[in-house]
Amino acid sequence: MDLGLPDELLLTLKGFIPCRELQIRQFASLLSATYSPSTLVVHGTEATGKSSTVKAVLESIATPYAIVRTQECITTRHLLERTISAAQDALNSGRDENDRPPARGRPNPTTSDRKIGGTSQASSFFCINGADELQIPNLSVILIVTVPRPRLLHRPGIPHIHFPAYTKSESLEILSLSPLPLQPPASNLVVDPIAKPRFTDEDSQWLWSRFCGAVWDSLGQGAARNITSLRSVCTRLWAPFTEPILKGDYGVREFSKLMVRNRALFQSEDALTERIVAPTTMPDPSKTKVIKAPLNLPFYPTHLLLAAYLASYNPPRLDSTFFTRASSQRRRRRAPATTPNHRTIKHRKINRRLLGPQAFVLERWLAIFHAIVPDAGAKGGLRGGGADVMSQIATLGRLGLVNRVGGGEGAGEGLGGGKWRVNVGWEVVRGLGRGVGCEVEDYLAE
């Protein structure tokens, strides 16, 4: 039962502040015209609608009020003077000139000029000399805090209202109230005037609601948790996401194709970082990223990457030929078949490097790694506990140097087992191999 506001005004407030119906009803019950608590605590995380809800409810009540922002106050004395001045202005704003009390001077606030948020542990006292001259009957103080102190709300008799974080459905409902239009960005984007379709508000609303849901599932749930950050991320990604529509490549209702085309936007975390200068070029999400820049890796991760390259481009049937100790003395390439004693080659073989990297299992990767690393059996090396191979494999995967392409059974499933594929080119592998004294050409099949 709401004691403070009529039903018509409550409906208006719920339309002005969405997804906060429960908190509005709690305010209406506590802040009545006949009785209000002396202190009311409003707490919740950032960007949950605390200040806007409090201001909207106070404006709807026919009683004077004053709001003081602590961000605008430097010292505690400044805060106290602003509070007294705002309270007097609020009382005088609702009175006529003849009804106002005579000016007897401002009450003398006695406090120290300590900065707000200082590291001092001493107690702070506010002494208002002449509090009876303020003439504020039935005064209620509303404290809006982000994180309340421990055991503050465990004391009996302190009314408080909690503003929880917005859920997914609530966040999408709030963002859907102000969708961004489908229009060309401010950059020099060449748009074909013939192929450019006509967009309506219904098309923008339809695409915006589904786009915000995709942003929440990919980035908002883990990083942009408050409504302000989620709105900022959606604003940054909206222009590159709708660029294929403006060019005429896709229609507005082809949301699945747009998601496949722009999947790199939802996989990257660049939209979460504030930038002063916008990037000049956007990466093409349709092309697979292959690292070609020179790398500088430690000793064991370098050999792990070399072993991954050899496992991707060598057939498994030749592992015994290249990586056993018996064949280490005869690891040279064979001479081309030019003499008449050799058989005539009937089918021309394609170089495996032209076919792309192939997937391999973890056990084969580790076997090749132990075969090419120099001190695999030395004391203090791999067998002596000198390197955590599995953690280094996981690090290579996070860096994108190797990709896991499927699950698998067997040993090591819980530590990164399954099938893997290398994600670096030949120039990078050859440079890394020469840096550690390993000629990768000696281990590659023709």
Outline the structure in words.
There is one protein chain. The chain has helices spanning 7-16, 21-30, 50-60, 76-93, 168-176, 201-220, 227-247, 255-261, 263-267, 299-313, 319-322, 362-372, 389-398, 426-435, and strands at residues 39-44, 108-110, 127-129, 141-145, 160-163, 360-361, 402-406, 419-422. It has 14 helices and eight strands. Residues 103-126, 330-340 and 409-413 have low confidence and may be disordered. Helix content is 36%, strand content 7%.
Oligomer: single chain
The strand count comes to 8
Question: Could you say which structural class the secondary elements and strand pairing correspond to?
Answer: mainly alpha
Number of helices: 14
Round the mean pLDDT to the nearest integer and report it: 75
The helix-strand sequence is HHEHHEEEEHHHHHHHEHHEEH
Q: What distance separates the N and C termini? A: 83 Å
Tell me the overall shape: elongated
**Major β-sheet profile:** 3 strands, parallel
Radius of gyration: 34 Å
Specify the helix fraction band.
25-40%
Could you tell me the strand content as a percent range?
A: 5-15%
Low-confidence stretches: 103-126, 330-340, 409-413
Query: Strands of the biggest beta sheet: in what spatial order?
Result: 4-1-5
In short:
With 446 residues, the chain is mainly α. It has helices spanning 7-16, 21-30, 50-60, 76-93, 168-176, 201-220, 227-247, 255-261, 263-267, 299-313, 319-322, 362-372, 389-398, 426-435, and strands at residues 39-44, 108-110, 127-129, 141-145, 160-163, 360-361, 402-406, 419-422. Helix 5 runs antiparallel to helix 6 (201-220) and helix 10 (299-313) packs across helix 12.
